[in-house]
Amino acid sequence: MKSSFFNRWIPRFQAVPEGPVWGAFWIVSVAAAIFGLSMEWVFFATKPSFMSVLTGWERAQILMLSPLPLIAVSAAVSILLGVAGRLVSRARGALVRIGMLGPGLILASSFLLLLDNFTYTLFRIGIQTATGFWRYGYLAVFGGFWWWGWRIGMGVLRGLLARGNPKRLVLGLAGLGIVAGGIGLVVGRSPEGEPAEGAEAGHENAMPNILLLTPDGVSAENLSVYGYERDTTPFVRAHAEGQALICENGFANATTSGGSIASLLTGKLPTTTRLYYPPEILMGPAAYEHLPGILRKYGYENVDISCRQNADAFDLNMLNSFHEANGRLESSSRWRLVAGKWLGMHTAYFLESSWERLRDRVLHAAGVKDFESSYDEVVDKQELTLEHDGERLDRLLRLIRADRRRPFFAHVHFLWTHGPSFYSPNPVFSKKGQQQEPFERDFYDDAILDLDGVLGKITAALAAARQLDRTVIVLSSDHGRRWGSGRIPLIFWFPGGAHAGRIRTNAQNLDVAPTLLAYLGIPQPEWMEGLSLLAGEPPADRPVFNTTANSGVVDFTTGLVDSSRTKPPFYSLGRLTATIGNRTFALDLNTGNVATGVVEGHTQPVGEGQGPSLAEAREFLFRHLEKSGYKLPASWRTAGGESPAKGTR
User: Fold this and answer.
1) Which of 211, 422, 473, 533 could form a disulfide linkage to 447, CB 3.0–4.6 angstroms apart?
2) Rounded to an integer, what is the distance from CA 381 to the centroid of its chain?
3) CA nearest 574: which of 483, 486, 487?
4) Do the bridges between strand 491-493 and strand 471-475 make them parallel or antiparallel, or are there none, so unpaired?
5) Which phi and psi angles does 561 have, rounded to 5°?
6) For the sheet containing 583-588, what is the strand order?
7) How many C-beta atoms surround the C-beta of residue 177 within 10 A?
8) Distance from C-alpha of 587 to C-alpha of 608, rounded to nearest angstrom
9) Stretch (H or E) spanning 596
């Protein structure tokens, strides 16, 4: 009796047919790898992800090159099993069945992610939402999928052997792999100029520690160290005057954390890196050109303590930067640097992101590690903010207390002051009331006061570890309150009170990296766009640029840019603001109109008749965009486009 289709493709434990079984095994493994990674590629390509900013060719390159590592591993496994099968011929069938666990696992992983994507997209129910006993149900489902994937693989293998010698198919697949690998070697390499670690390690003992603190959403107007009527920063105020370099009028270069932190650490404007809002990442040479990469060459131990949603250096694709980012060691993902050399930066990032998606879900289902939603932490989830900021502080204190021979560079991004809701364990200004409106002043001020106390704890820990007199501390912020573009704190404490004083003209986060390099005696690279504040007051007429993402292209259920909404020529960029003195000129990239305003609390206003006219400001905003590679609508050159004046907060 002829066997049914079901019996042919979904086999039982009958004997493995004769024939070139290991060639057929490799074909099954290749098919499983291509299927699994293709499904992940579809997910990233159709959802807001890092692929949203890639060209069609770059996306196709990822699809073509990403299976190569698994294909190579499958070839090695096929050869090893084939050799073992020849040495022990009776074990041939068992070896085939054991080997098929690999393709079965790949298929099971793909099935699990497809199921999770489907249920979460439609019903907001998935592995990450499962708690308690129910999470283990997904582990059982994964096991069932593995069994099913194993049986499918065995069925396909039997089908190939039943149809004859698969030699031609093996040779064809191998040829395609060689061609794709050749393309990867030619076009997929990382850019030249990648920094080499440890090139200047002999300098390590002479260098001070560097602590870069960037609490989220802090406005200078609410800090007593900047003249605020409430004493919200008693510690900073007492330790700043005469001991620190205080920038009276400091500004961030983006109103979103990702763009701002990337700009601060690279010394490049967001319009240069094209990184404005997640899931956008650093691309090309920008992934290697940054302050932490330079410091590594001088023997620094680099640690990033921040938020995974929008400030994590590894998630921003900052390569060869930090040794550790939020508990993840760079050494554990060093393969991405190797893969990037041969398969391209984008393909390596895709492979790592796909692995993390699977790993986090399986660990959650197994009860090993709870799935953490970083997006929940930066929306109205204050209990997560307090818990995670406490963990960040503990990690920093352990770093300070550790016995080491190398100096450290630590970037710490706290969320106590993020908002829109705030909670203080020891309220002073809110007096234990209930917050009624977003960003209420009393509750915001209490959050700043709590942050000031944290800075006191950090300084005390440095002193106790005898590190205070050999540590540079920088206090800044990623943006102002309510994601504003107004003044932020920008204060430098150098050992021994060196360079103490005040900078009255406009300073910016873009100046932090050049200033630190100047203090260390390290030449500033040409690609850094800021100025060293140790050289004196920056020019009074220097425009400070700030970018704002286009809110119309953001999916606020995920906190990510939706590429289906972005359009040329500006894509996710929504507004470009230039601040000169106390005057702001904001170009709306949806309309081409320019709004003028005055910076609240500015201490160095431009004089009467000084500064650019509206037409002049409009022109240099246009020139900046064109210099950054944007093509402006032809009609903008003739449009008037002034909006009513507004104060900037």
Assistant:
1) 422
2) 20
3) 483
4) antiparallel
5) -70, 135
6) 544-549, 573-580, 583-588, 594-599, 642-648
7) 16
8) 23
9) strand 594-599
Beta strands at 209-213 and 408-412: parallel, antiparallel or unpaired = parallel
Tokens of 100: 């098929």
β-bridge mates for residue 293, sequence order: none
Q: Distance (Å, rounded) from C-alpha 392 to C-alpha 388? A: 6
pLDDT, tens digit (0-9, with 9 covering 90-100), for 357-373: 898 889 988 888 775 55
Length of the chain: 649
CA distance 145 to 134: 17
E strands, 306-398, are: 324-325, 328-329
Average pLDDT of span 60-87:
89
Q: Which helix (H) or strand (E) holds 375?
A: helix 374-377
How far apart (Å, rounded) are the C-alpha atoms in residues 513 and 534? 12
Dump pLDDT digits (tens) for 531-588. 999 999 999 989 999 999 998 988 877 778 887 788 889 999 999 999 999 999 999 9
Q: Domain 201-334+379-540 in CATH: superfamily?
A: Alkaline Phosphatase, subunit A (3.40.720.10)
Task: Return the percentage of the chain with pLDDT > 70, whole number.
Answer: 83
Asked if residue 20 has a cis previous peptide bond (ω within 30° of 0), the answer is: no
Q: Are 27 and 21 in contact (CB under 8 A)?
A: no
CA distance 455 to 211: 11
Per domain, the residue ranges of the chain are 5-187, 201-334+379-540, 550-648
Strands (DSSP E) contained in 142-279 are: 209-213, 245-247, 250-251
DSSP string computed for 219-271: -GGG-GGGT-SS-S-HHHHHTTTTTSEEETTEE-SBSSHHHHHHHHHHT--HH
The one-letter amino acid code at 374 reads S
Structure-block tokens of residue 138: 């997904």
% of the chain beyond a pLDDT of 90 = 50
Q: How far apart are CA 166 and CA 161, in angstroms?
A: 7
Question: Which candidate, 238, 298, 287, places its Cα nearest to that of 265?
Answer: 287
Q: Furthest-apart CA pair in the chain: how many Å?
A: 100
Listed in sequence order, the DSSP H helices in 167-206 are 167-187
CB 479 within 8 A of CB 498: no
Phi, psi dihedrals of residue 578, rounded to the nearest 5°: -120, 130
Q: Please identify which residue in the block is written with the tokens 């004089």.
A: 607
CB 263 within 8 A of CB 254: yes
Tally DSSP H helices, then E strands, for the chain.
Answer: 19, 18
- Residue 200 sits at the vertex; the CA angle it makes with 196 and 202, to the nearest 5 degrees, is 145
